[in-house]
Write a structure and sequence with these properties.
It contains 7 helices and 8 strands; from the N terminus they run βααββαβααβαβββα. Strands 1, 2, 3, 4, 5, 6, 7 and 8 form an 8-stranded mixed sheet that branches. β6 and β7 form a beta hairpin.
């Protein structure tokens, strides 16, 4: 079962889950300066203790997780159904928890998931948890973006490295305007 892509950070000891409120949107993540997993403890405590700031957060195995949008994290078992069997184009982002550029472009990818919600599905695949997919699709750098349509990789759709919102929009518009497969 696919889970929504969530960011997480270690929680401070003794924090009550009852104090956690709604989840942050991608824009809120970006505006608050959240870029991934490297918080200082004081900021971390301030976020968690601010009522109304976090919504729908959940405490899972000592980590506070919050989702930022409609990007779904999938694995090897969901790949065929979610990507290859999709009736609309799917942008696959290969990421890793330890990858700085992956965390850096998260707000941009979340923006794209909202901007192109009717035309495009976006999923993330964890590099470390899915070595077979990494090998099969020859993912050598992170983050890697690949567009799939009709169960096949769209030629020249592969892009590696961080990307700005403007460049992502140009990239997606050019691919969605001419999504032919090899």
């Amino acid at each position: 079962m696919a889970a929504r892509f969530c960011h997480s950070f270690p929680t401070a000891v003794g924090i009550s889950t009852a104090r956690l409120a709604p989840m942050l949107t991608a824009v809120e993540c970006f505006q608050l300066g959240y870029t991934g997993h490297s918080f200082s403890p004081p900021r971390q405590r301030r976020w968690v203790s601010s009522p109304g700031l976090l919504s729908g957060s959940m405490l899972v195995s000592g980590r506070t997780s919050f989702c930022c949008g409609a990007v779904t994290m999938i694995g090897q078992s969901e790949f065929a159904g979610e990507v290859l069997g999709s009736d609309r184009p799917v942008l696959v982002e290969f990421v890793a928890e330890w990858c700085g550029p992956c965390r850096l472009i998260t707000p941009v990818i979340e923006w794209a998931s909202q901007e192109y919600s009717g035309r495009l599905k976006i999923v993330k695949i964890d590099h470390d948890a899915n070595p077979q997919l990494i090998e099969e699709y020859k993912v050598y750098g992170l983050p890697t973006l690949i567009l799939f349509k009709n169960g096949q990789e769209v030629p020249v759709s592969r892009r590696e490295g961080a990307i700005t919102k403007i460049k992502l929009k140009e990239y997606l518009e050019s691919l969605l305007g001419s999504t032919t497969v090899a």
